[in-house]
Specification:
338 residues, alpha/beta, Quinone Oxidoreductase, Chain A, domain 1, Rossmann fold, 28% helix, globular, binds zinc ion
Length: 338
């Protein structure tokens, strides 16, 4: 089959690789769409470790075309792939933390992923897309599962005041999900005016820029109390410091973005004095997939509005280069296989 193979950082080309042979319990999937994640950009640049040579891509939608099919999983079925694999036997798996399995990993990082004609997935890692569910939109659902996992673990509930720092793809999903969960006041913070407008159109109650203005408006709209929860979606430690500043006494911080490495000063005294809960989150669990397909199917979350580009998967180098350039209007990029 043909695949975009990343041999080493920034060395990627369209290659012919061995055809995939699904084992017992696995199905062969003809990929139709795969989204590009920030993680892919970081793997491409060599900023996070991966098993080179690797076929990246962990936001995968395709059609079952073979392997261990049965009554429930048939050839021709359109499916979304859960790319987070786990052993099912270890301490973490047994307590339900399959996303933290030390023997697991991520397709497209530890094993081959979706920027290819085909992929192989275990039967219990795939989720059928309902009739009428756009496959291109389906490729963005895996991102929403990580957003849902974060808000579930972070305990976002009805009546909360939630501040989202950073209004890229995940920030805009957090805005919509917080509203769907019944948050009373959802405030989006970004320097980018276009993204603030998109956030408003997707249900944010208020949008503002970072800094003093954000603090003043958040205090004004919470009777001087501050936010119940602040979700950091930028990935800069300076923005994490802003999150600590905006949360109320006894509030919660969800550092959602990934901080690959680096050191910076954080207001550690405030951790103590404000008695903040810092809730870290990684990936998602299988159950999040069904719920997210439902949230999108019921139009509680609009993912189509976040997809600004689609390109043939053979142009992955160009797409990643584009994603590394700053842009005010670009959001989700989906690669197409056919
Ligand atoms: Zn991802
Ligand atoms: Zn395990």
């Amino acid at each position: 089959m043909k695949a975009m193979v990343l041999e080493s950082p920034k060395e990627m080309s369209l290659n012919t690789v061995s055809d995939l042979q699904p084992k017992e319990g696995e199905v062969l999937i003809k990929n139709t769409h795969a989204g590009i994640c920030g993680t892919d950009t970081k793997i491409y640049e060599g900023k996070i470790p991966a098993n080179y040579p690797v076929i990246m891509g962990h936001e995968i939608v395709g059609e079952v075309v073979g392997g261990d099919t049965n009554e429930d999983i048939k050839n021709g079925m359109r499916v979304l792939v859960d790319p987070v694999f786990f052993c099912g036997e270890c301490f973490q798996c047994k307590i339900g933390n399959t996303n933290l399995c030390p023997f697991g990993g991520l397709m497209g990082r530890e094993t081959n992923g979706g920027f290819a004609e085909y992929c192989v997935a275990r039967k219990n890692y795939i989720y059928p897309l309902p009739t009428g569910f756009d496959s291109k939109v389906g490729a963005a659902v895996q991102v929403l599962t990580t957003v849902l996992h974060a808000q579930n673990k972070g305990g976002i509930i009805k009546g909360d005041t939630v501040v989202i720092l950073g209004l890229g793809v995940t920030g805009l999903m957090h805005i919509q999900l917080a509203k769907a969960k019944g948050a009373k006041l959802v405030i989006g913070v970004s320097r980018n005016q276009h993204k603030r407008e998109v956030a408003l159109s997707l249900g944010a109650d208020l949008v503002i820029s970072h800094g003093e203005e954000a603090k003043r408006i958040i205090l004004d709209s919470t009777d001087g109390v501050g936010a119940d929860a602040v979700i950091e979606c930028v990935g800069h430690l300076s923005v994490l410091a802003e999150a600590i500043d905006l949360a109320r006494l006894g509030g919660k911080i969800i550092p959602f973005a990934i901080y690959p490495s680096g050191t910076a000063e954080l207001p550690f005294y405030d951790f103590y004095f404000k008695e903040l809960e810092i809730i870290n989150v990684r990936a998602a669990k299988g159950k999040d997939f069904e719920e997210c397909i439902k949230l999108v199917g019921e139009k509680q979350v609009d993912l189509a509005a976040l997809i600004t580009h689609s390109m043939p998967y053979t142009q992955l180098n160009e797409a990643l280069t584009m994603l590394m350039e700053p842009s005010d209007e670009r959001l989700k990029v989906i690669m197409e296989m056919s």
